[in-house]
Automatic annotation (TrEMBL):
Annotated protein name in UniProt: L-lactate dehydrogenase
Subunit annotation: Homotetramer.
NCBIfam families named in the record: L-LDH-NAD, PRK00066.1, PRK06223.1
EC number: 1.1.1.27
Keywords: Allosteric enzyme, Cytoplasm, NAD, Oxidoreductase, Phosphoprotein
GO cellular component, one term: cytoplasm
Higher taxonomy: Bacteria, Bacillati, Bacillota, Bacilli, Bacillales
Amino acid sequence: MIPTTNRIVIIGAGAVGCSYAYALLQQGLTGEIVLIDVNKEKAEGEARDLRDAVPFAPSPVTIRSGGYEDCSEAELVVITAGLAQKPGEMRLDLLTKNADIFERIITEVMAVGFDGLIIVAANPVDILTDITQQVSGLPAERVIGSGTVLDSARLQSALSEAFQIDAQDIQAWVIGEHGDTSLPVWSMASAGMKDIRSIAPAQELDTIFQRVQSAAYDIIQQKGSTHFGIGMSLARISRAVVRDENAVLPVSARLNGEYRESGIYIGVPAVVGRTGIRSVMDLPLDETETRQFAHSVRTMRETKHALP
């Protein structure tokens, strides 16, 4: 049974983990936040810094550093640990390094009797989510990757800026790999209920998406890392879980016949609530999108099979 302790454990007290913790704090999404990091002094320092913001939070929250034993009664374990992407480095380049790190982390988490949900945020997120599910032995619906939640937010933001329409009135999803083979679902995108393709020509939309796809590389080149957007993305997924929203979010979920694919984690819209992924939405993609999505899945399979 999934614990209802209102405790979220964050493994990795780097920029992403702490941005996520700050988002949880600001939104009042949990009563307890525990930071775990290989650098215990840093985890304690970050916890102390975050505690200074508690008086301004919308609800009471305990924030502290801890160890893997704190996972035993956690409702959510969110893994942001792993080597960060460097300038000029592709997300898939990180796979071998982070796969080893993840196997060690998951083994530690499960050794204390953890029985909640795991959310994965390190890159390459789709394959690391797959590895997490295999090593943990948890049901696939209880292991969720951040998927293309951030990619979709970037697309909505870019379209909002281009067309001067509130981002919340734009429905546009990116699916597939969180990486270079991701694709926009233009056939189902809209702005204020209006087909996005009737607002701008295909060439302009493609240019916008190319900027979205290169956004992380550009930001990393400018400042060394990205962390605010993914921190908020993780908070959005967490909100769907802890508040049992049954929200539709483009997370990394395991396919079981949807899109004519099975046995692979990849970014697709799914219904997310307290028990994890309730169902995957099988979108009626057009011919081009179907071909692009199949290519993205094939890339993930080939990369996964190349692991030693």
